[in-house]
Specification:
With 171 residues, the chain is of the alpha+beta class. Helices cover 16% and strands 36% of the residues. The longest helix is centred in the first third of the chain and has 16 residues.
Length: 171
Amino acid sequence: MNKVLTILTISLVLTSCFQNKIETYGKYCVFRKIDDSLTSILTIEGDNRLYTFESKLEIDIESLEDYGEFLKDKNKVYRKYDISDRSLILELNDVDKESFQTIGISIYARDNYHVFDSRNGLIDSADVNSFEIVEINNSFFGKDRYNYFFWNRIIKDTIGFEKLIKSKNNR
């Protein structure tokens, strides 16, 4: 049912925005929201989500690359963040664009200096050299040599978390 509603919503938005198409390149299409000239909508072929972003971001769709929860164009790196009724595209701050890479298929990414998540951006307390992904029941957590992370938050109950990981690995 949710998939049908999502497809109907996307169809309605695209139909109403079609005359407001700004730019198309490959699998990307950008529309200007009818009721808000400050907001744009990005669609990605094969992805059933609508991404909204502030038009001042000036995303270059000709060089845009999709990295799952992150996007990168010739100028900047962006993060995707799902909220209740849509997905936002936000600029990723403090990132070294040249060394930026996602960490597996997850909500996490890194550059030579920092670790990021797609919800909050920079994770100040993460050690970039030892950071890795831990997957449990299709949920992704971060781990460095000092801590486990849920998004950007340090998990306090590391003993319980270690037991959970060991029980998953022993299956």
